[in-house]
Queue: 4 jobs
Job 1
Amino acid sequence: MSNSSMERGDINFRFVITDDNDKQPDLTGANLDAFVEEFKAAFAPTRTSRFIGVANTTLIGTLAADMGFERRHVFNNTWFQKARVIATRTAGRYYSLQCAYPITSAAEYNPVCESIAASVRLTK
């Protein structure tokens, strides 16, 4: 889902499911730090992205990491976009909600991201 415009900037929300080809164990409190490090390496590997923090939450009824990142414009060097990744690993799959919006609109879009994460359910 997207709410992007020239006035508002780039705003999008994506729910992604991928197979865990490495067959890692389900996310637990014991392996949460390693899980976060995996995502930090994947989402903030360049000088234009930085990791800003993590909190525990739930996604699809299981423990998840709510990770925050910021992105910087390449040309003018200003931090302009907040990216949140709420992710978990269970039953051989990674599940992640990826939310991105301008830093100046974080107060408006943080609750939207949290609402989406709280409402996601798996059905058979």
Note: The longest strand covers residues 79-90.
Job 2
Amino acid sequence: MRIGQISAIAAGGILLGVSFGCVSQHQYAELEDKVALQKKMLEDSIKVQREMLEVNSMQQKKIVELCTEMRAGFGATSDSIKKLTEKLKEKPESDQDKLVAAAVLLAKRGPNNSRYNAINALGYIGGPEAETALLKMLDIEPNYRSNVFRALMQMNSSKLRELVIKTMKNPTGRDFNTISSCFDRNNNRLFTRKDIPLLLEYLNRIPLSGNYSHYRSGVIGIILSLDTPKGIELVCQEVLLNPSRNNNIFYQLNNRSIMVSIADWKKVLEALGPICSANLNAYQAICQAIRNNGDIRMTDIVLPWADYAAKNSSFKRSYLDMLINFKDPKAAPVIVKMQDGIADDYMVRRMKQCPGIVEKNGKLVLVDKAEMEKLMAQREKTITRLNALDKKRASLLKKTK
């Protein structure tokens, strides 16, 4: 299978994952736009991959010329480059072999920027030869270790888990950055629930001071995806332990693969405290996470923030975006009240689609009393159904433990 086929299959998997994962039961109205966007991204990705695979005779000649120039620059005694130059002239050889050979050469001998790009390219190309080359670089290229780990993760290397766990057990100061890319909350391929003790041990080794909050939040994000209640406990602890650097941690809650319960949200918000200028950035992140959660039961929790949102233009947009996404008639009065000053056509169009709101004479108003009562009755049925689903989910979780 060629690189273009592999990339197309991978991109197709991403398209399906994003398309289905991004749409909660309250977000079907936006499905078509998101699918169109993902289709465009997929087409662009395939186009790039096809361009990469057009390694014809002209491109082969350029590679040979590049190697010849580099040999001249490093001296005529550079046997490895000389041999590679001759090897590139040999046939038959696959396009992928040529790409790997050229990328390895640049990763070892090129200037800094070229080396970074070449290592990343090896991760996208994949294959045994690229993997072997990257593994060798870990020992001889200490300044590029984080790039190598990222490339190994990109190619889904079978060697990566062993390397990451070894590093986690005895990390140095630089290692926190080196393996940070391996703690991807949206793409966890390395860890299982059995690894939670190791993850907790590693978390305790990451300093609270300095610029380490990003690394700590990445580990907590993985734990959230494996054991959400434990992850919520850690989020609350992080807020209390490191109040001045807790913004990153809230972005970990913006993950569609985890189920944050209403009770869990209440714990997080209690730990954070009432909204104010000091924690405004944290509340911005929380609005985004709650927005994507799409649970109308959150309306009662967030409605008290309306007064602050009305006085703060930057928070107002995030707050309205969250309320609109609930599609909850109970939020309609607040949305109507906050419509002044919203010039964004897309936002206005979404506001018009909210249950309980209609447009009259160019202004948004509430529906009549009878219609609102019907909508609120339907809302109560939805909440009853969601509560029943929560109880069923909790019962299943107890059985699996």
Note: The longest strand covers residues 357-360.
Job 3
Amino acid sequence: MYFLLNNQLLDIAAEVEDLATEAARERRQTPTLYKAVQIGQRLLYSAGSFDTANPAIVRRMSATIALASEANAALFVTALNATSARDVAVRLGSMPLTTVAYLHRLQERGPLTAGVINRDVWGQVAVDVPLKVEARA
């Protein structure tokens, strides 16, 4: 299973399986979309880039988003004048498998560019996944 996080197509199959196994074993639900998005916002705000964040945390956060929604793509963007993780904007989407395969082939040749991502994903995304998350007390 692949998940596009900003400019990287991540293989999150192992993380998805681990989360599902943990949830079944402990008889609990997987973390919520709200929690996964919050983690992503904090990671990007503190690290400045997902490239410099802990890769295991990045993959697990991506897997949680995938399990908690129909999304297979997420875009996190920090505002220039950001003062907290809440200033990180988030967009989720669902790409067709043909786009995932195309991006996989491109990424094998080199890093994905913002132009390719914007044109082939966010310009063509099949479904914008609504980010309906509510804070839990």
Note: The radius of gyration is 15 Å.
Job 4
Amino acid sequence: MLVSVIFWMAESSTSLHVFEDGLGFYTKKIVGHIKASATTPQTFINFTKNVAIDVPDAPALPFHSSGFKTWWKKQQNIKKIYFHRYSVTAYFFLKWYVRKRFPKAKIIWVFWSGEYYNLPSKTNFIYDKYSLKYFLEHRDKL
């Protein structure tokens, strides 16, 4: 599973990796793999209040907290944003923060099996029109 997400090795721009992992296990593993292979600056954040496994490179900051807002103001030159699990929080982060400050940033969604098996109840709320249509047409084949 982790091998499939290590495709950014030769990129030349600053990248942000967004997690929402209360346990911290997967965040720790992925951050380790990225840091071991990336040749460009990488930034990490975990949108959670309490995390069981602390990952110093991925601060656990609840979305909309004062800590998050301070952290966000320090971010510069983000060209790519990787969502390691897309969620309602990720949707609002993208809509309210990313698109206003980094409108040309490339958005990459790293699909995890939990997103398929634990779909949110409001699918039409977090997916845009094209993605929702595709998902609804193909979810039985995915």
Note: The helical segments are 25-37, 66-74, 88-101, 113-117, 123-126, 129-138.
